Structures are given as C-alpha cells and as structure tokens.
Amino acid sequence: MTSTISEAADQSVHQPQHGAGHGEEHRDVRMFGLATFLVADGMTFAGFFAAYLTFRAVNPLPAGSTYELELLLPTINTVLLLVSSYTFHRAGQACRADRLVTSRAWLLVTAALGATFLAGQMVEYFSLPFGLTDNLFASTFYALTGFHGLHVTLGVICIAIVALQTHRGGVITARDHFGLEAAELYWHFVDGIWVVLYGLLYLL
Amino acid sequence: MTLAAPNPVAPPLSLQPQGWVRYLSFSTDHKVIGLQYIVCGFLFYLIGGLLAGAIRTELATPLSDFMPRDTYNEVLTLHGTVMIFLWIVPVVNGGFGNYLIPFYVGARDMAFPRLNAVAFWMIPPAGILLITSYLLAGAAAQSGWTAYPPLSLTTPAAGQVVWILSVLLLGGSSIFGAINFIATVLKLRRPGLKLMQLPMYCWAMLGTSILVVLSTPVLAGVLVLLSFDIVAHTGFFNPSLGGNVVVYQHLFWFYSHPAVYIMVLPAFGLVSEILPVHARKPLFGYTTMVYSIMGIVFLGLIVWAHHMFTSGTPPWMRLFFTIATAFIAVPTGIKFFNWLATLWGGKISLNSAMLFSCAFILHFVFGGITGVSLAQVPFDIHVHDTYYVVGHFHYIVYGGTVFVIFASLYHWYPKFTGRMLNEDLGRLHFLLTFIGFNLCFLPQHWLGLNGMPRRVAEYDPAFTIFNQLSSIGALLMAVSTLPLLINVVLTAIRGELAGDNPWRALTPEWLTSSPPPVENWKGEAPLVLEPYGYGRRSEEYGRKAEEVAA
To answer: Is B5 close to A2, i.e. CB distance below 8 A?
Structure first.
C-alpha cells in the first residue's frame, strides 16, 4: 500500500473494491470537487477585488463623490453572517451526533440569519445616496455586493433544502450527510468572502 | 469526509443508451463524452476553417472586395472564438482528456460523470448561440476574440452580448471539466499507483486544469462587468464614464495568457504519449517533464502583461513581465530536449501519428522562439498588433496543438473504433497540412516585421505577394481536410481491424479491447507501473506487473 496515511485510513473505512464490477464504490470525492469549485469561485471574487483596487488607485472619482459609506448596517450584517457560520457549525456537530432535530433547528436559525442579511442588504441598497451608474465606485460597489448577495441567496436556498431533508428517515443522516456538509463549506466560504469584501469596500 | 456512498453516478448498464444513439445522449460514459467532444469540436473546426478561408480570400487582394469591412470583422471575431473556445480547448482537454485519463489512473470513469456530461452539453448550445448571432443582420460581435473595450462597447451591442453569453457558457464548461480532471487524477488513482508513475498526459491535464480553475473565473468575472457596460451603461471600462480599459486588459490576459497553456499543455502530454510508442523508447526525463509542466503552470500565471507592452505599462511592469516570460523558455526547452532525446536512437516508425508529432516539435520550437522575441519590449513595441503576432500565435496553436490533435487522432483512432486509419491517406493528409500550414503562416512573420497590421481587410499593395502565398497555403490546408474526412469515412465502412493493441503500447488504455467496454475493463483494472518501459527485455512488463499486483 503506497497511499498516504490519511488515504490508507480512508480506505480502511471504505474498502473500495477496484475491479468489483459495475456499481462499485470508490472514495467519496464530492467534497474535494466542491472545494476545487470554491477555489474557482474565489478567483472570480479575486478578479473583482483586483479590478476594484486598481480602479481606486488609478481612476479618481468625479468631484462631489466619496468612498465613505454608512457603517452601522453593514457592520451588523457582518456580525449576522459570522454568527450564522457558528450556527451552521453547531448544526453540523448535532447532525454528526445523530441529534437531527437539534441540527434542523440550527439550520433554520442559519437560514434565518442569512435571510436577515439579505434584507439588510436591500435596506442598504435603497438608502444609499448613489445608483448603479453614478460613478466607478458606485458601479463596483453594486457589482461586488450584488455578486456576493447572489451567493448568499443561493446559500439560503441550499440551507433551506438541507433543513427540509434533516429529520428522522430523511436524506440527511448522521452517517451520510453530504448535502449538509457541502452547504456548510459553501456557507463558510461565502462568509469569508464577505469579511474581505467588508474590509475592502467599507473600511478601506 | 462522508462515509462511502454508492457511486452516485452510473445507472445500471441496461439504462445506458447503446449504439449510435449514445453519442447524441446525456451519456455519463467518459469514452462517449470524450468522443462527443472530439466530433463536436471537429465540426466547429470545419466552420472555423471556412471562416479562415473567407479571411484568406479577402486578403488575397489588397482591397476589401470579397466582403464588406464590417463583415470581415465579424468573420475574424467568429473565426478566433470558434477555433479557440469550440475546437482546440474542448478537444485537447475535454476530448482526449475524458477518453484517456480514467484509463491512465486505473478508474472506470471520471470522478463526477454527470457533471462531465453537463460540461459537454454546455458546448453545443454555446456554439449555436455564437454562430446564430452572425445570422442576425448587423448584430454580430466585431471586436475580435479579445473583445477589448472601448471597441466592444461601440460595435453592435446585441452581438457582443450574445458573444459574452456564449463565452461564459464555454468557460463554465471548461471549469466543470477541470474540476473533474483534478479530482480524477488526484483522488481516483488505482491503489498502488503513485503520482510519479502516471503517464505524462495525466500531469499535463492536472497542470492545465489548475490553470483553468485559477484563471477562467477571472475571465468570466470581467466579461460580466463588460456586459454591464454594454447593457446597463455602467462605466467600468468606458473611459468617457471614468472607467479604465487597461483593467479589462489585465483581467482578460490573466485568463487568456494561461489559455495558451490550456491549449498547448495537453498537447505536450499527448505528444509525450505518442513519441515513446512509435520510437520504442522510454520517455526521456520523466521527472523533469513533470517539474517543467508545473513550472509552466506557475510561470504561465504571472506573465500576462507581456500582451500589454503598448498599453502604457510602467517600466517596472515591463521589466518583470519580460523576465518572467523569458523564463518560460526554460521549462519549455527542457520538454523540447526531452522529446528529442526520446527520439534519439529510437526505432522510429514514421507513420502518420509520428509525422504529425515530429512536425509539432518543429513548429513548436519555431513558435516558441518567436514568442521569446515577442517578450522583449523594444521588439514587441515594433511588431505589436502586426501579422508577426498572428504568425507566432498560429505556430503555437495550429502548428503546435492542432498537429498534435491530428497525431492523436491517428494514434488513438484504432482504440476509439477498433479499426486502423489508412496510412497512405494519413501521410497525404500530413503532407498537405504541413506544406499548407507553413506556406500560410511563415510569410506572415515577414508581413508583420514589415508593418502589416492584423485585423484589417485592406492593406498596402506592397504586401500582396506574401499575402497571396499565405492564401495559397490556406487553400492547401482546406484541401488537406479532405483526405482526413475520406479516411474516416472509408475506414468506418471497411477499415483494417486494429485488434486490442496495434502499436504494442504499454499504457493502460491498450490493455483492453478496442473499442473498450463500458467501465473500461472486463476484469480488474491493470496496474501499469511503468507506462514507458519500452526496450526492456519484456515489453509485457505492464501485464507482468498486473499479475504481481493480483
């Protein structure tokens, strides 16, 4: 056996039967695939961030425009997202401990926090003094927060679906809970992106 | 890590479509998907070739007398986009990658077969979308495959938006494919098979897929911003609204320079499979090949601004990108000398696959050298946006990658179909392509050095003779497609049967029937520890190892 220790440990659990014929099992690599996808997704944000920083460094805003933004609401939103990462973590713990009812409750709390974030984002959009095409910063602001907001929306939908699946006899079980784990990784990713985005757009 | 779920993919054999229908179906069999990519890509190659023919017909005379100038711009844009995004990238990655990689890692399919099918089926709609936009009068994209603003903001908007949608779909397809390749190579290897024992194409696809995952999303992002500029009148890249066109160029080339490696690294891998088989020698310098692939991946990500030396780049940036670009010649040179050393003293059979592979080496070293010259700022500023760049580029992607695609076709066709392609027609195909290609693109270097700009329908009459030579070359290339098509049709009707392993090759795809069964092997997957063990006492080494493992 030449695989690394972790692989060996993995295989001792899975017992992959190479050559066992059709419908054979191989190691579950879906989380690995998702992680690779998130690297790609992160690169999209990295491109946006790079564009935004270059715009800021090179292209002066027209007179009368400012980079200053109201901080209270986005800061509350940041806290909401960070808390939601924790509540999702608790949901995962509960699921692995086979406490599915508790897990579902934590999931619903997470989804609610995510939805509240989106609502806060909407409130912010309607209270901002600038529109999409007012200046370069305004356009970049809406593009970045909008793209992130799409991610949050997708995340809330995924969490809601996973919550529906988490109950006795449901798809999500203590043994097999790919959906929950995938949604959790994705959610932490979306939160992490927000922290960077908050720093760059609001604090810088 | 979740516990073992049964392979979520494969429906029972009886549910997989059989016969010809499966090539038009949502099949999850990696071999079917591979061939779908290749055939679909080849159809787009024919379309792109017709467009190239139209371009060369226009350029046969100095005046724009064959088509209106706007039409010329549309044709040029479509030619570039089709050839890059619908022919080379899908075929050399998705086509041969899907067919070969599971064999090479000893798996029965890719890691995510359904995602794989989704990735393929994003391509035909994207292609149809792109081409139909050209049937709408006055609505087609005209800003070249680079879609630089502000040009892309002033040309017809509808066509440009359709172009962006199409490229976004193709980019998504490419990313899904890359995720699949990374997972398959790293996670689905047969137990007992180390990374450093994999055939070289696996490394090439791993490197390529890393590039796709890191760079394609950036292109997607910047194209979305461009579409905002067109549709919502934002000003990201619109100088009159305070925007910055150079940011577009940076982000575009952050993908599109690696895209050259996305097109050519898999070709490196394929040629590294073909040369040892037909020279009956082990691949020279396996380890250095692996490190040079990874070196190219790393350097490929940090050289993009050498496309922008005339875009007002500051001196430090020019210096950095010149040096970084020149460094790429090192890993590339290592690969070049390794191929030569593989051939050196080999028992070479100069069949069609080998002829195309050798021509690849020749063209690639020429295109590589003109590439290094383009990395030098003073020279680049002189020839920027001239036919010199066009010539260089086609030596890499046509003389390089497309020649390897043809070599691979002759090499693996027996595995795909169970029948051999006709060698005489193959050599005729090679001869016409080789002469036509060099006649078409070699004079373009001269044209560029003397100042003929690219992307123009009219030019100074002083350039006529070399343009006509180039057009004659293009005609030869068009003719060269005929022997290939005839060959494929004739072979399908009554080709010589190939048997399992007509080349006496050692890589795992040959250790099964031709064409291989669904799930690749009837019994257990073979363990091939030395895929290039040619010239040893027993060329059955691969099989022996398999018995030992069992």
So the answer is: no
Q: Name the residue of chain A whose CA is nearest to B193's CA.
A: A2
Structure tokens at B337: 């000398």
Average pLDDT for runs of 10 along chain A of length 204: 37 38 66 97 97 93 85 96 97 94 96 97 94 92 96 97 91 90 97 97 92
Closest CA to B406 of B29, B45, B105: B45
A26 contact residues in B (CB cutoff 8 A): 7, 107, 188
- Whether the pLDDT of residue B51 is over 90: the answer is yes
Nearest-angstrom CA–CA distance, B365 and B345: 21
- Spell out which residues of chain B touch residue A32, defining contact as CB-CB under 8 Å: 183, 186-187
Q: Which residues of A touch B214 (CB under 8 A)?
A: 39-40, 43
Inform me whether the C-beta atom of residue A174 falls under 8 Å from chain B C-beta atoms. Answer: no
Q: How high is the ipTM of this complex?
A: 0.90
Considering CB atoms only, which of B107, B115, B214 is closest to A43?
B214
Structure tokens at B496: 């010589």
**What's the rounded Cα separation, in Å, for the pair B81 and A171?**
44
- The mean pLDDT of B157-177, rounded to a whole number, is 95
A25 touching B (Cβ < 8 Å): yes
Q: How many residues does chain A have?
A: 204
The pair phi, psi for residue A80, each rounded to 5°, is: -55, -45
Give me the DSSP letters along B289-346: HHHHHHHHHHHHTT-GGGG-TTTT--HHHHHHHHHHHHHHHHHHHHHHHHHHHHHTT-
- Nearest CA to B260 out of B313, B212, B228 is that of B212
Domains of chain B: 26-549 (1.20.210.10)
Q: Do A33 and B7 touch (CB under 8 A)?
A: no
User: Which one has a higher pLDDT value, B200 or B523?
Assistant: B200
- Preceding peptide of A62 cis, ω within 30°: no
For residue B24, how far is the Cα from the chain centroid?
23
φ/ψ of residue B38, rounded to 5: -65, -45
Between the CA of residue B117 and those of B3, B37, B532, B541, what are the distances in Å?
A: 25, 10, 31, 35
Cis peptide bond N-terminal to B461, omega within 30: no
DSSP state of B537: S
Interchain contact, B183 vs A177, CB within 8 Å = no
Q: Are B147 and B141 within 8 A, CB to CB? A: yes
Q: Provide the token pair at B427.
A: 């050599």
- pLDDT at B161 (0 to 100): 93
Structure tokens, A37: 């996808």
Give the closest of B6, B216, B221 to A25, CB-based: B6
Enumerate domains of chain A plus CATH numbers: 29-203 (1.20.120.80)
Sequence-separated (6 or more) residues with CB below 8 Å from residue B532: B199, B276, B282, B283, B286, B506
- pLDDT over threshold 70, residue B3: no
Interface test with B, best of A11, A67, A136 (most B CBs within 10 A): A136
CA-wise closest residue to B518 among B118, B113, B179, B202: B113
- Distance spanning both ends of chain B, measured CA to CA: 29
